[in-house]
């Protein structure tokens, strides 16, 4: 009987995030430099066949949730074909994709036909000028168009991820919350994390979840935490007391959820990570390309989980930012 992927702290891992590219078609200041971003050479990126094989092995060890990420995953050619391969793997109960939404007008329907139903779309603002300031690109309209199309096609749930930066994001909190309520999307505010490529992060720039909750409760209506939620989910979910939907908060800085973490990550260049903030990585690409049998790859997965630390220690003097920025790790 499969005992699952359990670490030395008793945490059971059933969630795998798979980055398929480190490239992106926008340049959000908290993630990538505006120019001269360093990308992995294309030959070092895992093929879809290699990704499919790795996922099949991981699913056989207890992984049941898989999320496709980047970079921006939709910039990679033939993404619906990968989705089709993954959707056919017996044992995956939850297949999702995170995107900035710019290419959704072209790809939402092929993705849906390939078997994808869950979408997370990154969107920090509904204001075109502010969107261009944050992303350094003028592409708000296709994102909104793609979201509307995804809703018509039947994607559900659709979640909106918005990074919250102090002295920047405050004007966007209420408009985004209204947008979510009006469209049936769950807005998820994510505290600004030390994962940018330029060393811009500072704790003083974190707009914490409690401040956002206070603003929304005052400007829209009371929020109440949803009881009996999955304690391993990264977002703490709230619902509006008036029944107007739900909203989530990923408070990695002010409310770390390391003790309940159930996630491992595969980078686009074939490195397995037990934490978003991990300093060390486990090479699995060499095994995938070197003819290693499935049980050897499975052993590498298990040893990575067993090596997992207790937590990232963002709130201590011991914290060290990972050597790779967010776009190179995978969202």
Residue windows where pLDDT falls under 50 for at least 5 positions: none
What are the secondary-structure elements, in order, as H or E? EEEHEHEHEHHEHEHEEEEEEHHH
Integer-rounded radius of gyration: 19 Å
Strand order of the largest sheet: 9-10-11-8-7-6-5-4-3-12-13-14
Domain tally: 1
- Helix proportion of residues, in percent? 25-40%
Rough shape? globular
Description:
By secondary structure, the chain is of the alpha/beta class. It has a single domain (5-329), classed as TIM Barrel (Alpha-Beta Barrel). The protein has helices at 48-60, 79-87, 104-114, 128-135, 140-153, 170-183, 209-219, 285-289, 294-306, 326-329; strands at residues 5-6, 12-13, 15-19, 65-69, 94-99, 118-122, 158-164, 186-191, 223-225, 236-240, 246-250, 263-266, 271-273, 282-283. Strand 7, helix 6 (170-183) and strand 8 (186-191) form a beta-alpha-beta unit. Helix 6 crosses helix 7. The longest helix has 14 residues, at 140-153. The chain is globular and about 55 Å long.
Question: Quick recap of the structure?
Answer:
The protein is an alpha/beta fold and 331 residues long.
What key attributes describe this structure?
two-stranded antiparallel sheet; alpha/beta; 331 residues; twelve-stranded mixed sheet; TIM Barrel; globular
Write the layout of secondary structure elements.
Layout: E1 5-6, E2 12-13, E3 15-19, H1 48-60, E4 65-69, H2 79-87, E5 94-99, H3 104-114, E6 118-122, H4 128-135, H5 140-153, E7 158-164, H6 170-183, E8 186-191, H7 209-219, E9 223-225, E10 236-240, E11 246-250, E12 263-266, E13 271-273, E14 282-283, H8 285-289, H9 294-306, H10 326-329
Parallel strand pairs: 3-4, 3-12, 4-5, 5-6, 6-7, 7-8, 8-11
Antiparallel strand pairs: 1-2, 9-10, 10-11, 12-13, 13-14
Helix pairs in contact: 2-3, 3-5, 6-7
